[in-house]
Amino acid sequence: MVPLSVLDLAPIGSGSTATAALATSTTLVRLAEELGFRRYWVAEHHGMPGIASSSPAVLIAHLAAVTERIRVGSGGVMLPNHQPLVVAEQFGTLDALHPGRIDLGIGRAPGTDQRTARALRRGTAPLGADDFPEQLGELLAYFRGDGPVVAVPAQGQDPAIWLLGSSGYSAQLAGLMGLPFAFAHHFSSENTLPALELYRRMFRPSEILAEPYALIAAAVLCAPDDDEAQRLALPSALQFLQLRLGRPGPVPTPEEAAAYPYTPEEHAFVQQRLGSQIIGSPQTVRAGVQDLVGRAGVDELMVVTNTHDGADRLRSYRLLADALKGVATNGTLVA
Q1: Residue 223, SS3 per DSSP
Q2: What digits encode the pLDDT tens for the residues 271-317?
Q3: d(CA 119, CA 319)
Q4: Which residue among 27, 94, 143, 178 sits deepest, i.e. has the most Cβ atoms within 10 Å of its Cβ?
């Protein structure tokens, strides 16, 4: 029995717009709260024609304002792209506006190309993740009130701090700092179990956590039957392939994805991508979720679903909630 949450990239479909994508996010966060999901995170991506979530803090403010109970946060803010003071002020403001509901998930990778990263930071020095512990320490200091300067309204605010990762580095750091850890199973599934084991082994109790707490973000797509789910999942896999080929774009339609002239290597890549996801009918997805949660032994499962059509995403989350049919006493949906 683990809580379920949502990771939203605000995908933009082929022929659609950012306005439509963000309207779907608004509908989805309300639906997630209604269905009993615990938290709703948005990701930070830049220069991606198929992703509308380039500004997590702005989007979080909107999503928190249209809901009442569900926790809302970042999955995550890529700290190398930003001055820690700016992040502290943004999330201090969010926490002041919505006390007890804001999560600040932090990632150590720029998550974009160096040119875009330099534009974000307005600097000329090479940007990377090597100085991440120092940046993170500065960020946390602003909330404690002992940073280099006074951060208002960050000082005294208390957003929940998470470390995000797709390898062992952040897992180890989260453990040593006694912070909750979120692992990106949806694009680094081969590293999931080793990273979780490292996090638990390295964990040291802190003022935040007495015991380790880990979630994984997994790609899940639920449709009325297995064939329909596979048809709807292919466009996102093709979008990921195109990103890897240096041609980022919107989420193709199912028809565009089916008609794409895959090379044997591209076909194998797409099949491997789909094979790491949980795709199918409610019965298939239920079994897949239970298997993944059992193998990983996680405390929480965060679901990311990307489709061309927003209506298919909304239906997938409804079917998932209905298939799992578990609600804890606090109203949180559980698998």
Answers
A1: coil
A2: 999 999 999 999 999 999 999 999 999 999 999 999 999 999 999 99
A3: 41
A4: 94
Which residues lie closer than 8 Å to 293 by C-beta, 6 or more apart? 2, 301, 335
Cβ burial of 148 (10 Å; 0-12, 13-18, 19+) is: exposed
Give the separation between CA 63 and CA 10, rounded to whole angstroms.
Answer: 12
For 99, which DSSP code? Answer: T
Q: By the 8 A CB rule, do 171 and 198 touch?
A: yes
**What pTM was estimated for this model as a whole?**
0.94
Closest CA to 325 of 36, 125, 33, 102: 36
For residue 86, the model assigns a pLDDT of: 95
Q: Is the pLDDT of residue 126 over 80?
A: no
Domains of the chain, first to last: 4-219+280-334 (3.20.20.30)
Q: Is the Cα torsion angle 179, 185, 186, 188 positive or negative in sign?
A: positive
Neighbours of 267 (CB within 10 A): 12
Instruction: Give the list of residues 6+ apart from residue 209 with CB closer than 8 angstroms, or none.
Output: 178, 179, 180, 203
HSE-CB of 174 using CA atoms within 13 angstroms: 32
Q: Which amino acid is at 126?
A: P
Q: How far is residue 3's CA from residue 332's CA, in Å, rounded to a whole number?
A: 6
Instruction: Dump strand ranges (E) for 173-250.
Output: 181-183, 214-222
Contacts of 27 (CB under 8 A, 6+ apart): 310, 314
Dihedral pair phi/psi, residue 179, rounded to 5° = -110, 155
- Which amino acid, 52? A
Rounded Cα distance, 48 and 63, in Å: 21
Residue matched to tokens 């082929």: 14
Burial of residue 42, with CB atoms counted within 10 A of its CB: 0-12 exposed, 13-18 middle, 19 or more buried: buried
